[in-house]
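Subject: mismatched residue count in predicted assembly?

I count 649 residues in my input, but I want to confirm that the predicted structure covers every chain. Input:
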Amino acid sequence: MLASQRHTYWLLIVPAVLLMLVFYIYPLIQVLWISVTEPYFGLQNYEALLSRPLLHRIWLTTLRICAITTIITVTLGYLVAYAMARVGERQRTTMMFCILLTFWLSVLIRAFAWVMLLRNGGLINSALMGLGIIDGDLPLLRNEFAVIVGMVHFMMPLAVLPIYSNMSGIDGRYVSAARGLGASPWEAFWHIHLPLSKPGLIAATILVFVFSLGFFITPAILGGGKVVMISEYIQVSFEETLRWGQATMLASSLLFAVLLTLALVARFVDLKKVFGAR
Amino acid sequence: MAETALASRPEPQSRASHSLSIRSLSKYYGSLAAVDDVSLEVRQGRFLTLLGPSGSGKTTILMATAGFVQPSAGEILLDDKPITNLPPDKRNFGMVFQGYALFPHMSVEDNIWFPLRVRGVSKSAAAKSVATSLELVQMAHLAKRLPTQLSGGQQQRVALARALVFQPDLLLLDEPLSALDKKLRADLQWELKSLHARLGTTFIYVTHDQEEALSMSDEIVILRDGKIEQQGDPVALYERPATRFVADFLGKSNFIRGQSAGGDAQGFRVKAGEVTLHQAGSQAADQPVLIALRPEKLSVTRARPDLPNAIPGRIAAFNYYGSTFHLQVETGALGDLIVTVPAWKCEIDPAIGNEVWLGWEPDASVVVRDN
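Triage response: the counts match. Full output below for your records.
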């Protein structure tokens, strides 16, 4: 009976697996294939990754922005999740709604909303000038600052949700016990709560960092062509300079970067535990 | 078995013992009084148990003592020093939580080191105290384990060691045995009591289990709806319950309603329906009286016993518990009475429908307040 039941479960995932094979795995193999065959067979596209300073710069910019975005997002997300795990049921529902709300807005709309706020003569600059704090427009747009602001905003739910789901499972009695045994509020947090929330923290860090690596729309709009991240350069190579070999190579290297990140993290933590498989 | 294990353990360090005063303590949640004007003295070195059903306020009193609950009114003093507004970490009380709350990411020895660690003692300097505490609860061989790798009883011991390692002024225990099975619970009752005797630390113990309260405490405080119902040593409470609630909550009781009808120096008579009973003590005539009668204080015989109180009845049901029979006897006049008799010397044939006589001495029962 058990065996036949197991077969039924496999049948349930067949459509999804087929969909992935046809529309995801096949094109992915195509990308990898083109990256070593265009314009001719070999690793010459990957050599450019080492030899061309432009590509170095783009990769460094990407990694820097991703790292800063990840640190800010996870820190803020931790604070929000901490508050959420402690407020009453009603406030929690409201907070959860507000966090999920951002998912319903297109990333394009959100990026343009930030443009409205950050541009010269935009809400922030005119407000600061109106208050007499600044004399001229602050350069808030078309730079890394703008890109990071937009990315942090987009990534927040991805940080809050795993951290919150981990924190809500931490028995409040551990911190109480620590206090009762003589720990100050800060010591109880540092020695007990923080280590216990580590799996959520790591899951959020991986999620945000990996998502950030491939970010396209937000950097393209808020960076305004001045801050070029890897995805935007891939798009340019594909559609404007028509260098498919380079585009597919960069896309593949992005994939490798993600796998490398996971491999590095896996050396230090049990990923199965982090992602709830055990 | 438990006792031989105790004898081989190291001698305890002597600890200064402290007293606790709770004065007019109240805690309101909205309009609900979880604790309602409770005053309590815990003398130094005592094992005091707060006993009551859920919602009686026992845990709230303990949590206020530990500093986790801010009282709405009243004062808590340790050796006459007010501590009501001190945060938990400034009180120096050891606490064993329900479910133990062992830190899951720390080994047994790191759990026990924790209270010393936050007091600025390095791991190497704490090693001796940690080892002594572990030996005190016979857990030295499992020092490197994680809490999840321990059984319930072992976790309980680690929680005790952790709560005692820093020589706390008081030890607070919140239903520490409730998660354990019956056999283990009985063993640990011996151990806790002997630990208390050896350490001399003042223990405040919260439970809803009357057996635990009776077996370990120097003093029991019975709580009901946020108020103290009765307090005293276990024997006094069991033998002389003041109210119906206490007689029913602490052990089991049969209750007989009647009317007092005059008496003499030996006692007075109680008319219960057509039956007249003899009750020790004194009571003005023509008062309603409620008598509580412990099931084990009734005798069951085939023939009419030579006792001041005797009534015939018929066995309606019985349960066998190995050491005892519990009989439910229909008496007609006094309703159904529950009787407990030692199974090994049961004189009657405990079969449903058999006719028996119940009897008891006038001082076997007590008059209780009906509430």
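Residues 201 and 312 of chain B are 52 Å apart (CA to CA). Marking this ticket as 'not a bug'.
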